[in-house]
Amino acid sequence: MFVEELKRIFRRPRNLIILGLIALVPILLGVVVRFASHGGPRGGGPAFFAEITQNAIFLPLAALASMETLILPLAASIIAGDSVAGDAANGSLRYLLVRRVSRSRIIHAKIVAALVYTLALSLVIAAVGLGAGSILFPHHQVVTLSGLSISFVHGVIEALLAALVVGASIFSVTMVGIAVSTFTSSSLAATSIAVTVAIASEVLDAIPQLEKIRPILLSNYWSAFINIFRSPVLTGPIYKDLLEQLGWMAVFYLLAVFNFSQRDITA
Amino acid sequence: MTSVIEVDGLTKRLGAQRAVDGVSFSVSQGSVFGFLGPNGAGKTTTIRIIVGLIYPDAGSFSLLGEHKSSRLHRVLPRVGSFIEGPGYVPYLSARQNLDRFLAAEGVHRRGRAPLIANALEAVGLEMVMDKPVGRYSLGMRQRLGLAQALLGDRDLYILDEPTNGLDPSGMREVRRLIGELASLGKTVFISTHLLSEAEQICSHVAFMSQGRLIKTGELGELRSGYPQRLRVVGSPIGRLRALMGPSARSEGSSVLVDCDPKDGPQLLKSLLADGIEVSEFSWITPSLEDIFIAEVGEGFDVR
């Protein structure tokens, strides 16, 4: 069932176009920085933006940082919102259920497949960014944020790790989308709600007076992946990020599984 | 005879409306059971309960001997279902859609291709099996839905409005398919609001109206409970009508009257004796539509 769900996601032209467009971002970013800005960007912009011209490793990292706040949550929400609601709307959900496929198996397959797609989004950015960066920028030893040098291969591994952390940071948004998707036959409604939750979290995160509730906001540790590029790696914020994602995921996982197991399939 | 579907006092409320209200009936193995009623009578809701898509508020049911909704997955592999139209992923082809259902069911990859080919051939879609279903016409999608129900060898076929959206030849094909399934000893439970269609294929029927079951039984037995109608064509028609009694009524050149078949020979003799030139003397069996209207009343969506 999981494989079938993955096929459903990756055979959908819309989802492939999303992946394609997302893959274009690091290429465009690299080309613009390489050819359109003389002397490279000076300060400002998302994390690692100023370092892009120094090393190929920084292009995927800058791309991840710039897309983590809106484009990645949006792309993940589209797939998550469609996961159950899409099948309910087109009627294929009822035909899965009358073919001895248990509700538990269906919802778990959909959850895992949507999480895999979420990870694929950040990994595509990292892979394309590394490829484009290697063509456009130097690829020698990398100077980390702590000022120490690491080998290029070490840098590639850390960039891929950063992509995994960024992908995992969006898991909460994906799970919100799936949970909402079990309540409706409208993919658009489920997607909109998941995106709204993500944006609301970022807005609340930016309000100083709400500092006390920050630790429970799903976007609070989204920039934690930057700490991978410290020597040694600063694991604390990364663990906090993953733990927070787990908390949000647990709540919405239970909501999704409970509602899907009880819900009347009338669509 | 063994029952493959047993429903007892089934009740389901959808919103403020009681969609199914204390419905009880039984479907015998090997029968072609027509579940009849107008749109909104509660047929689809009942079917959804039987296959485990929605949960009843009250009452019980069993499907192929299984009583619990949570254990229906044990018997569902023996059931082919078509419920309220086709369900498909529009950007996948017919072959990919059917493959998805079989894979989810746990059928091995090598076993899927022949099952898919047979089902698509049965509904005449084998030539377009690799075209995305989103580009299919309404009738083609309906056929795909039927192909999905026909995947594999099942003991029971539950078909909810299977001829919706089909042209007359498509409807005839579906009737032929159902006849073939019945001849193989399969049980077919078909829900429809088309009484003429049901009359041609069903051995048993149940009438639904406003969430309630009005009547159920073997079609022949139901018919025997209703008066036969005598149709006589003769002249002079005025005198013929007068001789046939006060309940007789004219319809074109013929006179119709409800009467007991055993009184027929005597009536014919008296008509001839009175000098009526009789050119036709025949019995009309009550149609399913006549029976339904007698039981449920007018206002049925008959086509």
TrEMBL record, chain A:
Pfam families: ABC2_membrane_4. The chain crosses the membrane at residues 16-37, 57-85, 106-129, 160-180, 186-204, 245-261. The keyword NADP does not apply. The keyword Zinc does not apply. Keywords: Membrane, Transmembrane, Transmembrane helix. Coiled coil: none annotated. It comes from the Bacteria. PANTHER family: INTEGRAL MEMBRANE PROTEIN-RELATED (PTHR37305), MEMBRANE PROTEIN (PTHR37305:SF1). This is ABC transporter permease subunit. It comes from Ferrimicrobium acidiphilum. The lineage of its organism: Bacteria, Bacillati, Actinomycetota, Acidimicrobiia, Acidimicrobiales.
UniProtKB/TrEMBL annotation, chain B:
Keywords: ATP-binding, Nucleotide-binding, Transport. The keyword Nucleotide-binding applies. Residues 5-235 form the ABC transporter domain. It holds the Pfam family DrrA1-3_C. GO terms for molecular function: ATP binding. SUPFAM superfamilies: P-loop containing nucleoside triphosphate hydrolases. It comes from the Bacteria. InterPro entries: AAA+_ATPase, ABC_transporter-like_ATP-bd, ABC_transporter-like_CS, DrrA1/2-like_C, P-loop_NTPase. PANTHER family: ABC TRANSPORTER, ATP-BINDING PROTEIN. Belongs to the ABC transporter superfamily. This is ATP-binding cassette domain-containing protein.
